[in-house]
Amino acid sequence: MGTHLFTHTRKRIALLSALAALVTLPALAVAGCGGGDDAAGASGEGGNLSLVAYSTPREAYEEIIPAFQETDAGRGFDFDQSYASSGEQSRAVEAGLAADVVAFSLEPDITRLIDAGLVDASWNQNEYKGMVTDSVVVFAVREGNPENIQTWDDLLREGIEVITPNPFTSGGAQWNIMAAYGAQLEQGKSDEEAIDYLEELFLEHVPVQDKSARESLATFIGGKGDVLLAYENEAIFARQEDQPLDYVVPDETILIENPVAVVSTSEHPETAQAFIDYLYTPEAQEVFGEKGYRPVVPDVLSQFDYPDPPGLFTIADLGGWPDVRKRFFDREESIFLDIENELGVSTDD
Fold it and tell me: What's the pLDDT tens digit per position in 16-74?
């Protein structure tokens, strides 16, 4: 199977200001999605739930939450919503940010809260292993792909600038890096050669590292860079907003798996769990699919025409998150600590 190039021909309208408005405040709190009345939910209590999530699924949750509020379980509940980079959100909850439900980019940000006693260790015991959506890492490129970016090797061509977030704040950045590393292994490269690839990519081709995937998208749409390493869903979102870009699904890429969990300090744990259960309904999964995520429910996924990269791999194929985080992203000693220190990029929270 060859590389997939997607183009769009809709009216080209610059909406950078709209994108920037979504990322101007860290941990942006969005009050709203009110239930419409003060009637108690099915539990007889009613009240308020707080969703703390990573930056990119905001548009999906803003459709899903009102639908949940129309159900017996959700009636009478209002929602507060907070969106920022996944690592930033996880650390904020650990530090005391009120949350009933957390939705993060990657599993280690849930693990942090398990270690802090804020999420039960059995959080992932459903048939989807706690994951609510999937995606893959893609290359977002300028409309028409003027640099003809098709492969991971193309990112290292002279003069090519690649935009990706900071892996010490962004879960999306960690997915991007592991996609790049794993792609080298899929091509038959050695571990040492794969690490060399990452060093060359970041030291010579990455001019800026934003805090979150959504901020990097705004940077790219603002005109910086030739390629954006991105979630497939972010590229689809940009196209839905009539942005003049295309995207390429490389033959070798990683399956992104996005977790969701109830916070154990929730005052409404039954309703919080009911909300998570609702996320797996066909109605909610279809919303995720329409927003560019790959549904985890097979019957819903089959309704969408997502490409199937021949060299698709998972984080488990690379050793699993505990080993990956220690080796690549540890703040005391790791591959990317050395790379970022050489670049002079912050590795703080």
Answer: 444 444 444 444 445 444 433 333 444 446 899 999 999 889 999 999 999 999 999 99
Do both 221 and 88 map to the same domain? no
- Same domain (yes/no): 117, 45: yes
E strands present in the chain: 4-6, 28-32, 47-54, 77-84, 101-103, 131-142, 162-163, 227-231, 245-249, 252-262, 294-295, 311-313
Q: Are 175 and 106 in contact (CB under 8 A)?
A: yes
Q: Could you count the other beta carbons within 10 Å of the beta carbon of residue 37?
A: 9
Residue 87 DSSP class: H
Kindly list the distances between the CA atom of residue 281 and the CA atoms of 79, 201, 260, 303, in Å, as whole numbers in the listed order. 19, 40, 14, 14
CATH of residue 267's domain is 3.40.190.10
Q: Give SS3 for 287.
A: helix
One DSSP character per residue, 102-134 reads: EE-SSHHHHHHHHHTTSS-TTTT-STTTTEEEE
The SS3 of residue 151 is: coil
CA-to-CA separations, 175 to 86, 181, 313, in angstroms, rounded: 12, 10, 12
Q: Which 3-state string (H, E, C) describes 17-50?
A: HHHHHCCCCCCEEEEECCCCCCCCCCCCCCEEEE
> What are the E-state strand segments in 106-226?
131-142, 162-163
For the record, the structure tokens of 329 come out as: 């992203």
pLDDT, tens digit, 9 for 90 and up, residues 121-150: 999 999 999 999 999 999 999 999 999 999
| 119, 217: one domain | no
| Side chain identity, residue 165 | P
Report the alpha-carbon distance of residue 214 to residue 56 in Å, rounded: 6
Q: Global pTM?
A: 0.86
